[in-house]
Specification:
Distance between the termini: 30 Å
Number of strands: 5
CATH topology of the largest domain: Rossmann fold
Order of helices and strands: HEHEHHEHHHHEHEHHHHH
Bound molecules: tryptophanyl-5'AMP
Largest sheet: 3 strands, parallel
Helix content: 40-55%
Strand order of the largest sheet: 1-2-3
Length: about 350
């Protein structure tokens, strides 16, 4: 058996949909914590392509984006030797368990999901059944691996709560089958806001690319986006700035990138003009993203390495997932293959 699978560390699991451009919000809200926590856990990190097709995707773009996102996980510092990195559709058990869990999820619960309501407004020409039952697939992603902790941004809290309810419902109906996972939502950076529409969260699939920072934006684009980021009409930083939309968001991004408390950032820049602070924020971003992009370019230049990481990850994941799946099928009364 593979060394990683013998590991008795608790399980940390998370995933990102390959839509749009991997954005600073995704890094700060999720990936940064994957990298920081990967030593204490066995990390399972997925590119969730099956979730992405709930919205229409161009096939060639989707294919490229899956590889690009996986390469960005690696460039961010996820270690493929100690963790399991894979593309969701390479592990068929996700679809199998999602179907079972659909039968343990109530319409009333799905009707309450705010992400479904938002997405149905944005894609009102394509409100499909997959978009609606998406939380059951997400629950399957998590419960398949007997996950302990799920590091996500604040917008995923509701899906995590539903996952816990489904797990408890199944366990109570039969007998303990799934570990009931805990969410990990960071204290700082759980909800990075859009740069222009400052009341909306930063989204990687926003149509207006000035709303988000892509992890692959070149330095001149990064500087331009920060310079144009919307702030209020005050001009200098004060103790109140942290609570202001716009400037407060930029201050919290600076805090996370420089591993400072938001109040420390305010003390450092108090009395200074927004423009000077924005210049320093852009410098911090460039200093962080340039080496990230160099690592990314190297990984993308070595497709056989990337393929081998993803193949190995999927192999490990299938092995782990198959154990849970046979337990589930046995509990619900399916006849095991080869027996009658
Ligand atoms: P997705 O692809 O929308 O986002 C990926 C991760 O990034 C976080 N995030 C943010 N954090 C802070 N500020 C923001 N503006 C921001 N925008 C996004 C998200 O909270 C998420 O952690 N359903 C999930 C993907 C998923 C998943 C899973 C996650 C599928 N299966 C199993 C965890 C475990 C989603 O759509 O994330």
């Amino acid at each position: 058996m593979n060394e990683v699978l013998k590991d008795k560390k608790p399980i940390l699991l998370s995933g990102i949909q390959p839509s749009g451009h991997l954005a600073l919000g995704n890094y700060v809200g999720a990936m940064r914590n994957w990298v920081q926590m990967q030593h204490d856990y066995l990390g399972i990190f997925m590119v969730v392509d099956m979730h992405a097709i709930t919205v229409r995707q161009k096939p060639a773009d989707l294919r490229n984006r899956c590889l690009s996102f996986a390469a960005q996980y690696l460039a961010a510092g996820v270690n493929p030797d100690d963790n399991v990195i894979f593309i969701q559709s390479h592990v068929p058990q996700h679809a199998e368990l999602a179907w079972v869990l659909n039968c343990y999820t109530y319409l009333g619960e799905l009707n309450r999901m705010t992400q479904f309501k938002d997405k149905s407004k944005r894609h009102d020409d394509n409100i499909n059944a997959g978009l609606y039952s998406y939380p059951a697939l997400m629950a399957a992603d998590i419960l398949l691996y007997q996950t302990d902790l799920v590091p996500v941004g604040a917008d995923q809290k509701q899906h995590l709560e539903l996952t816990r309810d489904i797990a408890n419902r199944f366990n109570n109906t039969y007998s303990p089958t799934f570990k009931v996972p805990e969410p990990f939502i960071p204290k700082a950076g759980a909800r990075i806001m859009s740069l222009q529409d400052i009341d909306k969260k930063m989204s990687k699939s926003d149509k207006n690319e000035n709303n988000y920072i892509s992890l692959l934006d070149p330095p001149d684009v990064l500087r331009r986006k920060i310079k144009r980021a919307v702030t209020d009409s005050a001009r200098e930083i004060t103790a109140e700035s942290l609570t202001q939309p716009g400037i407060g968001n930029l201050l919290s991004i600076f805090a996370v990138l420089n591993e400072l408390q938001p109040t420390e950032v305010v003390s450092r820049f108090e009395g200074q003009q927004y423009s000077g602070f924005k210049g320093e924020l852009a410098d911090s971003l460039v200093a962080f993203l340039e080496p990230f992009q160099d690592r990314y370019d190297k990984i993308m230049g070595d497709k056989s390495y990337l393929t081998s990481v993803l193949d190995e990850g999927a192999k490990r994941a299938r092995y782990m997932a198959s154990k849970t799946m046979s337990k589930v099928y046995r509990k619900i009364g399916f006849v095991p293959v080869g027996r009658s």
